[in-house]
Amino acid sequence: MNQPLAYVHPGAKIAKNVVIEPFTTIHNNVKIGEGTWIGSNVTIMEGARIGKNCNIFPGSVISAIPQDLKYNDEDTTVEIGNNVTIRECVTINRGTTDKMKTVIGDNCLIMAYCHIAHDCMVGNNCIFSNNSTLAGHITVGDYVVLAGMTAVHQFCSIGNHAFVTGGSLVRKDVPPFVKAAREPLSYVGINSVGLRRRGFSADKIREIQNIYRLLYQRNYNNTQASEIIEAEMEATPERDEILQFIKNSHRGIMKGYFKSN
């Protein structure tokens, strides 16, 4: 249902039961799935691919060109999954030649004034609180929570089930299952509350804690700790996920609090 005061380009592909409120502009080469609601004063620009049952609140700008001087008008996209809520004044930029797209997974909540830059890859079930900012080329796993006013440096990675406390400056990679806090950003424990809420057993939480004790609290460097964890701890999906994250980290993982202070 399109309001007469909204503008929808004839080349946009809009499902029949999408609601578009007044004063919204939808450009050419846009696709919007069934059941999505788009509030007033939203701008959805070329290259947007928006899934089903999303809610986009007033003032948001989706799929504007990257804020990257190397961008040369490449045909890139923003891909947003199903059941995503995007609150007021969020900006999500489309990709560059690096990945050719910016991606937001399913069931995410992106709160007011967040910015997600070009070539970011955001997983499913994430919550970004107000004013959180992702620079370009960032990878965020599933079930990640960024508290308010978190700023993430370009090319960083944040692992599955991580929690980053409010006002944090993320300059290094944040491994999966952890809580990150303080300045400089440091390991302060595992995200046990989040893991319990998502059905992780007490035994599995203890296993993850034991892995991170070796990594952060036994005075080993990352290579030494990884070798001990691989040699002495039972192979499980969680153990292997942590080891693989450390191995693949390009910026290096954040330090433990006692190591960095």
Task: Describe the secondary structure blueprint for this structure.
Blueprint: E1 7-8, E2 13-14, E3 19-20, E4 25-26, E5 31-32, E6 37-38, E7 43-44, E8 48-50, E9 55-56, E10 61-64, E11 77-80, E12 85-86, E13 91-93, E14 101-104, E15 109-110, E16 115-116, E17 121-122, E18 127-128, E19 133-134, E20 139-140, E21 145-146, E22 151-152, E23 157-158, E24 163-164, E25 169-170, E26 178-181, E27 186-190, H1 192-197, H2 202-216, H3 222-232, H4 237-248, E28 255-256, H5 257-260
Parallel strand pairs: 1-4, 2-5, 3-6, 4-7, 5-8, 6-9, 7-10, 8-11, 9-12, 10-13, 11-14, 12-15, 13-16, 14-17, 15-18, 16-19, 17-20, 18-21, 19-22, 20-23, 21-24, 22-25, 24-26, 27-28
Antiparallel strand pairs: 26-27
Helix pairs in contact: 2-3, 3-4
Describe the structure.
The chain has helices at 192-197, 202-216, 222-232, 237-248, 257-260, and strands at 7-8, 13-14, 19-20, 25-26, 31-32, 37-38, 43-44, 48-50, 55-56, 61-64, 77-80, 85-86, 91-93, 101-104, 109-110, 115-116, 121-122, 127-128, 133-134, 139-140, 145-146, 151-152, 157-158, 163-164, 169-170, 178-181, 186-190, 255-256. It folds into 2 domains: 7-137, Hexapeptide repeat proteins (UDP N-Acetylglucosamine Acyltransferase, domain 1); 195-260, Up-down Bundle (Udp N-acetylglucosamine O-acyltransferase, Domain 2). 41% of the residues are buried. β26 and β27 form a beta hairpin. It is elongated and about 65 Å long. With 261 residues, the chain is α/β, with parallel strands linked by helices. It has an 11-stranded mixed sheet with strand order 3-6-9-12-15-18-21-24-26-27-28.
